[in-house]
Amino acid sequence: MELIATLTILGLFVVNAVCDCPNGYMRHDDSCYKLYASTKASWAEAFMYCQVFGSDLAIIETAREQNFVEGFLRREFKSGMSDGVWIGGTDSLVEGEWQWVKTGVSINQQEFTHWWPGEPNSSGNLGEDCMDLLHHENYNWNDERCDRQANFLCEKLAATGQQIIG
Questions:
Q1: DSSP states along 67-95
Q2: Which residues of the chain have pLDDT under 70?
Q3: What is the pTM of this model?
């Protein structure tokens, strides 16, 4: 009986150590995502907020990831949320040179992009240097003023390494 209890506890420890995401995050492939649906911030504040919790503003590199994020945001959307949700793209360093802030990878050079038709357009006098996903545009990519208050999506790598017990 004692052996069964020990094996059960050991099994639970290994399952928790090998997989899954922190509480409140949703796993997809090798990443964990969390939508801050009740917190609105500027892009820079959202960036820092994610960092404080050990993550980054989400980046989207493939159609598969875009499809996941769209479905996730549709399920989580609630009345009172901002239309746009911040993710980790910006052209604030060089106008028109979009990059993922977490990796420095050029979005312009990336095989996959998902801009809403006509975007990015840097509309307005203040420019639009930060990327969001607009609910009313089916979560396609949009450039937006960085000071706008919006909800945001954070991403972190899922725990994949096995813990050695002993």
A1: HHHHHHHHHH--TTS-SEEEEEEE-SSST
A2: 1-19, 124-125, 160-166
A3: 0.84
